[in-house]
Design a protein that fits this description.
By secondary structure, this protein is an alpha+beta fold. The chain folds into two domains: 4-76, Phosphorylase Kinase, domain 1, CATH 3.30.200; 83-226, Transferase(Phosphotransferase), domain 1. The chain has six helices and nine strands, in the order βββαββααββββααα. It has helices at residues 36-51, 83-87, 96-117, 165-168, 187-202, 219-226; strands at residues 4-10, 14-20, 26-32, 60-67, 70-76, 119-120, 129-131, 137-139, 146-147. A five-stranded antiparallel beta sheet has the order 1-2-3-5-4, covered by helices on one side. The chain has a two-stranded antiparallel ribbon with strand order 6-9. Strand 1 (4-10) and strand 2 (14-20) form a beta hairpin. It starts with a strand and ends with a helix. Residues 148-156 have low confidence and may be disordered.
């Protein structure tokens, strides 16, 4: 069945459309891959979404293949938009009860991903957390995920400001671990989510100094921002 498509937004290699009239409400993530490497990234996202079934993870519905380098992932539509939009909406008032409610949901989703599927997200940020019509929060956008039983490559993923100090610090010996697996630990997702809860409470963006790479982690800057 064909549905009317309403364009919502665009990513680096994808466009997102609301499928008008689809039940349940759904979006189509239409992916345009120029190379095999790009295709593999989105194939990985698709395979992960199929396995993850949790009330606080964006639900997978089905996949549509268009041609060798174009396909679509149809998934649950979170109609209230992403968390960044909610946090900075001056007309939206929420309480610490809501913050605790959201925190329990999101940490529960991370726990499920790690314990049940050995998956780490690697790009937890407000833009990748979405709100359903009943204000339930759901983690989405799994393009940077990694199965932690795979060999850790030490490659960076994620947004600079939401990376943990061990990820940013080139002197990893100071954190008690020399190998590059620090960059791919599930603990980094926990750190990122903790930072997001800070932003939810204060309703402002924190650690803006790390938006632009400045030669790595600055311990003095980190602690002065905290205290």
């Amino acid at each position: 069945m064909e549905f009317e498509k309403h364009w919502i937004g665009r990513g680096t290699f994808s466009d997102v459309f609301e499928l008008v009239g689809h039940h349940p409400p759904a979006v189509l993530k239409l992916i345009h891959c120029a190379t095999d490497a790009q295709r593999n990234v989105y194939e990985k996202e698709y395979e992960t979404l199929k396995e993850l079934e949790h009330p606080n993870i964006v639900g997978y519905i089905r996949r549509e293949q268009i041609d060798e380098y174009r396909f679509g992932i149809i998934m649950e539509y979170c109609q209230l938009g992403n968390l960044k939009k909610l946090v900075f909406d001056p007309t939206l008032i929420y309480t610490m009860h809501t913050v605790a409610f959201w925190g329990e949901q999101l940490f529960g989703a991370l726990d499920y991903m790690y314990r049940k599927h050995k998956v780490i997200h690697r790009d937890i940020k407000p833009e990748n957390i979405f709100a359903a019509e009943d204000w339930t929060l759901k983690i989405g956008d799994f393009g940077s995920i990694k199965m932690i039983e795979q060999t850790c490559t030490g490659t960076f993923a994620g947004t600079q400001r939401y990376r943990s100090p061990p990820q940013l610090d080139e002197n990893r010996e100071s954190w008690g671990q020399m190998d590059t697996s620090l960059q791919d630990s599930h603990r980094n997702d926990v750190y990122s989510l903790g930072l997001i809860l800070w932003e939810i409470i204060q309703r402002r963006t924190v650690f803006t100094e790390y938006d632009v790479k400045s030669g790595g982690f600055n311990r003095e800057l980190f602690w002065s921002t905290l205290f």
